[in-house]
């Protein structure tokens, strides 16, 4: 049996980022994961996620592959009796050049893996982890290749079907929505000017997020039967439909392969920790692709477990450390879960008071700059709505302006 300080299970974005950060913090770290499949989806990295990845040298590696998100526009396209006014959230209004950056997941993972390959205290094992157990003062991770690792801390970033979570006996609450998401990238004739536009429709959000050049990503939430029909359309017909749905704000559209479709669902755990185990990313919470919450929350998981491990360097898997991690993640994840769920369900509701509440809320955002600025700061970093954006965070977000 081999001995290491920390084992990170899972080679996706959250797992690779966590392993890299722990190694850079000086821990003897092993990343246990086979290669992740190619992923042409994109992620809008917001606020603290930008700062965390910046400290790992990721944005320098990405260069022009990361597109700034300077404006976020909400358009009510529900065509209901009570419609909310169009609201624009501008980063310049809170003294920033951008809220964050949109990047293809494949480019982000490549940058993380390149940095990880050069981290002297990080080893990668190209195998899966079967399970883990506690032996004395250590956790023992059993590997698919027959080996085993004795570690102080296991960080499980092994996805929504996490074997580590199951081995720890941590309960998972799951739910689904009567919707599917169509996810794709597309080219367009008119410059996006670093503006992301979210159309609120009766079937769910229809969200365009800028990519470098005259390209954008799209998350289109729709009724399942219609989503299935649309993904089977010829590319030129689908392109024209998307242009129409976007009210031609970006001109002619050209859809790019692949076109993905999957049912909308969510999940949350009973607790974020087990004996010498911490859950991060989709092992701890699953979000529908609404509001750019999924990976951003996962990276805040990474940030918190690395910070707390550093504060307990002699034993990063100590019970008190993991209790602090559970407490730090619980309120953040719960508040974001409620927010995303309410937004999505408010679009589906035909109940007139629900329409009124949503219209009044967005109307207040448009009319009251202080309320709008509070919402923007809070979206960047939990707690910053009242306390303000820390100077260090401002500097690290603005550093990557292109």
TrEMBL record:
Pfam families in UniProt: FAD_binding_3 (PF01494)
Cofactor: FAD
GO biological process: ubiquinone biosynthetic process
Assigned protein family: Belongs to the UbiH/COQ6 family.
UniProt keyword terms in alphabetical order: FAD, Flavoprotein, Monooxygenase, Oxidoreductase
Pathway: Cofactor biosynthesis; ubiquinone biosynthesis
Native source species: Aurantimonas manganoxydans
Name the record gives this protein: 2-octaprenyl-6-methoxyphenol hydroxylase
Record-level Gene Ontology MF annotations: FAD binding; monooxygenase activity; oxidoreductase activity, acting on paired donors, with incorporation or reduction of molecular oxygen
């Amino acid at each position: 049996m081999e001995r290491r300080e920390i084992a990170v299970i899972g080679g996706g974005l959250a797992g690779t980022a966590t392993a890299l950060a722990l190694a850079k913090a000086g821990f003897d770290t092993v990343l246990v994961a086979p290669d992740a499949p190619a992923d042409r989806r994109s992620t809008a990295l917001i606020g603290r996620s930008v700062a965390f990845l910046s400290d790992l040298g990721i944005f320098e590696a990405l260069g022009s592959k990361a597109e700034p998100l300077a404006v976020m526009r909400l358009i009510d396209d529900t065509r209901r009796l009570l419609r909310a006014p169009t609201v624009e959230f501008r980063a310049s209004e809170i003294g920033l050049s951008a809220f964050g950056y949109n990047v293809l997941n494949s480019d982000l993972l490549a940058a993380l893996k390149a940095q990880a390959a050069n981290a002297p205290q990080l080893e990668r094992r190209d195998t899966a982890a079967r399970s883990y157990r506690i032996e004395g003062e250590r956790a023992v991770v059993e590997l698919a290749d027959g080996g085993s690792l004795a570690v102080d801390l296991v960080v499980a970033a092994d996805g929504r079907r996490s074997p580590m979570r199951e081995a720890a006996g941590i309960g998972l609450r799951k739910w689904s929505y009567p919707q599917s998401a169509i996810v794709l990238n597309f080219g367009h004739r008119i410059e996006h000017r670093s503006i992301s536009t979210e159309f609120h429709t009766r079937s769910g959000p229809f969200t365009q997020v800028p990519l470098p050049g005259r390209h954008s990503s799209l998350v289109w939430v729709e009724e399942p039967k219609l989503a299935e029909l649309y993904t089977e359309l010829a590319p030129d017909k689908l392109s024209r439909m998307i242009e129409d749905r976007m009210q031609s704000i970006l001109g002619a559209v050209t859809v790019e392969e692949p076109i993905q479709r999957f049912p909308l669902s969510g999940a949350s755990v009973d607790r974020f920790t087990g004996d010498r185990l911490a859950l991060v990313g989709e092992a701890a919470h699953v979000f529908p692709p609404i509001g750019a919450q999924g990976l951003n929350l996962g990276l805040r998981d990474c940030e918190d477990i690395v910070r707390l491990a550093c504060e307990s360097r002699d034993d990063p898997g100590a019970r008190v450390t993991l209790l602090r991690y559970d407490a730090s993640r619980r309120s953040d994840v719960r508040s974001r879960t409620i927010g995303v769920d309410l937004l999505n369900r408010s679009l589906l509701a035909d109940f007139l008071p629900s329409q009124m509440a949503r219209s009044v809320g967005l109307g207040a955002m448009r009319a009251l700059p202080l309320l709008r600025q509070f919402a923007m700061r809070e979206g960047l970093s939990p707690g910053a709505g009242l306390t303000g954006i820390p100077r260090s965070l401002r500097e690290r977000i603005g550093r990557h302006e292109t």
